Known about the structure:
The protein is mostly helical. It has helices at residues 17-25, 29-39, 49-72, 79-103, 114-130, 143-146, 160-171, 185-196, 202-213, 218-230, 242-250, 254-262, 266-280, 283-292, 295-309, 313-321, 325-335, 347-363, 366-379, 382-396, 400-408, 412-425, 427-440, 446-456, 461-470, 479-486, 489-498, 503-509, 516-520, 525-535, 559-572, 590-599, 603-614, 627-642, 654-665, and strands spanning 46-48, 111-113. The two termini are 48 Å apart.
Amino acid sequence: MTTTLREKEGTCVDLQTPAIIAYILRLSNDQLIEAWRSVDVNDDEHINIPRQLHLIFLHLINHYIECETQATQQTQVDKADYQACAIPLSKKLSSVFQTVLTKSGYLQVDKMAKDFYLEWFREYLSKAQSDPETDCEGVIDDTETKEKHVLFAPASDINQATLSQAWQQFICCEPTIVHRPAFDAVQATQDLLAVVHDDTQTDTATRMMIEIITGITNRQRQQLKSVFADAQQAGKNPKFELYECVENTLVKGKTMMVLLTLLLRPAEFHCFWIKQAIQRQDLDLLVEMLCSLTNYEISSMSDYYFTSEKSELLADINQHLMLNKAAQWIVSKMLDAKRPEYVDADKKLAKTHLTELAQVLKRKQQKECKQFLAKWLVENAYSQIAYEMEKFSASSGKTLTSVVQRTMGKGHAALILLNILGMAHNRYAYFCGKLRDAMKDFHASQDVVIRILIGRSEKDLAAIVEYFGANNYGEGTTLRQCVKTAVSGSFRTSLLRIAGLNKKAQFRDQAAVPNMNDFLSTQTCSDSESDAELQAPKWQSVSKSAPAAATPQTMNTGDFDDAYADAYVAVDCDEKAVDVVDVSCCDVNVNELGHFMLEAISADTADRLMRRLNGDNGSRDIRREQIIYILLFSAVLFLKQTHTENTADLHIDKEKLKSFLMHCSDW
């Protein structure tokens, strides 16, 4: 069944599925992203396939119609005529695509991740179009006669998309920077523009930039860049980019480098370090980048390099790094980005590989051994290599690392293969070793720290940080202590925030997390202990037979009333605070504040605050305009807790704190 509008007088757009699919296959990634964003309006990074996939197709069909009508200059047709055909057609295409997913072994029945969509959407659509068993002009309903057919061959490729998705989730297991649903790019832009043009507020602008840029994901940073550029007026205030704003504010230094690096898109970030490797003739840096990227990231980086440099990446690598033939072949295979990506090793395949390896080593043919090792290490998944390394060591009493070193020698190829083995065996140890070496001469190796912290921040940096301390890579010091010792100022603040080692992390490291009930309660000791036990944070173990909280820190008994009064004055009074500003509102991270409110403010404290708001009428409801009281009250307590070393001299500009929290009160 074909849906067409050719029969309608004055129309020329032929809505046939082959033409539409061919059009979609020609679209760029940016155009596919635009279609995704029209559906995933909350940036959830996934969609519900039954409910939302047809909406993506509808957006693409409408885009096709718009382009076709503009190309033929047709203006006589009512858009409603097109929509009457486009809507059912989008549902049919969605049904066809879901059938393709099912027959391909796609495991996520209801959800589709954005990364999967960008990498596989066009390929699945093209396979559906070319496969004779797939009816692209109607809904496939003859399932009984088609269940026996396999859409793709060989069988090893059927689940590759799903396996790659699982691998991506495995890599991005413990990020330190996560998506912030409450982030408002428009509000953040307004906050920045309010201070960046004022030379007297350079310090405030710097703190705000660090707070915002290090606290959101790369996707949200790109959104901020776009909104920031569009928010400025032409004429007296010419349009300029966010990176220019950062440069003008910070002028120079490592903090500026960190923030500018964070503002790069992933492909730009990866390409930047590849260029650095080429310029410095640094093979170790090149291999680190190629080993640590997924296939999709390598492909995107290579495409961006060709676009920006107008030359082939492999040719430039061979020209500047002067690799031998073996190393050239290995690098070319890595740049092909066809390494299998899956989490669970294939035990039968491992048995085959190890048998072949034993036979090759037994023959003691140097050339044959080198060829086998190179081919094996560049054409197999990292999880497969790790499993086979373990089995080889258990059966032979030797390590594959020693075998590679003895066989390959000390040339370029040996360096590359040893890096592959290191990444496969334990990627946390791989990066911890590089961080350890960089910390020995931090000022000469700052680029290494910046590259690893930013590059892994949305993947597994939290696990790397933990592994660094647990396995004594710092020789008795944690990564946080190493950074604090090596650098200071805004550069240190930026690195600690990226690594998740800011103030919130400090409390996690303590034996007992301070409970706000300890600071504020005027109840009896038994009441305090009971409430502290109920309010203990999840990472704090509490024994009923032991005291429920650490020894209360010394604070005035009127702190509750003082904090409430501070919040009340900040809301109701227009006069500016006269205190010296020792603590900036930028010290309040909204995620940390929310966590603090959930974990640290006891039920007793909340009840007392409610009584303050509603008097003695016993009401449990609050008005919309009272939300700011709660936020300010909590923020004051939060700042006092995070600055416990100087609470006696703590001064907070309540007006700035109020302005900072006003947009939060509208959530």
